[in-house]
Amino acid sequence: MAPKTTVNPPYENKFKSIRARRQVLTGLGAAVTFPMVSHQSAHSAELTHRERQRGKPMQPKPIIIAHRGASGQRPEHTLAAYQLAIDQGADYIEPDLVMTKDGHLICRHENEISGTTDVATKPEFADRKKVQIIDGMKVEGWFTEDFTLAEIKTLRCKERLPQLRPANMAYDGLYFIPTFEEVVELAAAQSKIVGRLIGVYPETKHPSWFESLNLSFDEPLISLIKKYSMDDPRAPIFIQSFEVSNLKRLKTKTRVRLIQLMAREGGPFDGAGQGLTYAQMSLPEGLAAISAYASGVGPEKTMILPRNVGNEALAPTSFVQNAHKVGLQVHPWTFRAENYFLSNRDRRGNPAEVTYLMQQGDLVGEIQAFLALGVDGVFSDFPGIAFEARETL
User: Which uninterrupted H or E stretch holds 150?
Assistant: First the structure.
């Protein structure tokens, strides 16, 4: 049985826009700027049901960050995935950013694009396949830095995880690769259409690699931030990176909020020479150092709720409390509905079934466990489910 891909009807009906659907398929019109709404007012307009019952003072709701859009139900990093995420109640839509040969910011999970586009079927691009060492890893395929934006726009997107999400393959070939500006335009336009602030949460991918090619993210990224009146810590934007030096540099060039990403293993590529690890960065002194240049951290979720080798959930760590002590927001990643990504506690179904790992488990329960620990937001491939988890806590 294929994983469920139906949209939760109340959220679909609440946020649906015929105009927006037309924009997704045909492209967007003139640029629009975001309404200036503070982070506090944008995400604390209502109390949760429990807060109303208990009479607690109003607190900002944790934000729902649509990880590459509603990527559990549409091919990731497409305008269709971002639009569906907005329909389902996401507060922020998250584009990973890479660069073209002519310096444009486009939305792909990696600069190697054979896994998410039809580039391998294009005979005119066959000679561009190559092998490169990127951040110390050998990678073979087609790379965005070898294509102009015009060439990129001839490609069409496809599902990255067909083994787990075969239903999404029905959308293969329908959508083009959006630029970051097109995603910003979508968020700004939808903010006005649906009457609530939709933010963007871009990640700079492999910044050191692109800088080695004289393709820095800084100028085009900051140019767009200023063009859309977002150079303000209250603006609906976060910029995230697994590296450190580019965030520190951006700190001197823009006032938008920055997020230091980190994983359970390894360390930032640009810190490899100094032996810096994410484990060190997650210690109280490491978090204090991060607070000098970032507004928050995006840890892998198992840094908060670890698992043992048997995939059993363990007791929570003190990561959230330690981060909050030094003024950092905490936005863990990535919350996905399929059993494959869940701990044994949250998996559902019969393990003997062939499709067991594709089937959906209790993602609401998993997200609510993190919300109960005080996280300030969650990255999810299923923003509709994340919305349900937040609203029913």
Answer: helix 149-152
7 in any annotated domain: no
The answer as to whether 18 is a domain residue is no
Radius of gyration of the chain (CA): 20
Distance separating alpha carbons of residues 162 and 199, to the nearest angstrom: 29
Is 340 within the bounds of a domain?
yes
Q: What pTM did the predictor assign?
A: 0.87
Reference 210, options 149, 296, 145, 272; nearest CA is 145
Range of the domain at 378: 29-391
Number of domains comprising the chain: 1
329-330 and 377-380 strand pairing: unpaired
CATH number for position 101: 3.20.20.190
pLDDT digits 0-9 by tens, 172-208: 999 999 999 999 999 999 999 999 999 999 999 999 9
Q: How many CA atoms lie within 13 A of 55 on its CB side?
A: 0
Q: Is residue 98 part of a domain?
A: yes
The residues, ordered by sequence, that sit 6+ positions from 213 with a Cβ below 8 Å of its Cβ are: 145
pLDDT tens-place string over residues 104-115: 999 999 999 999
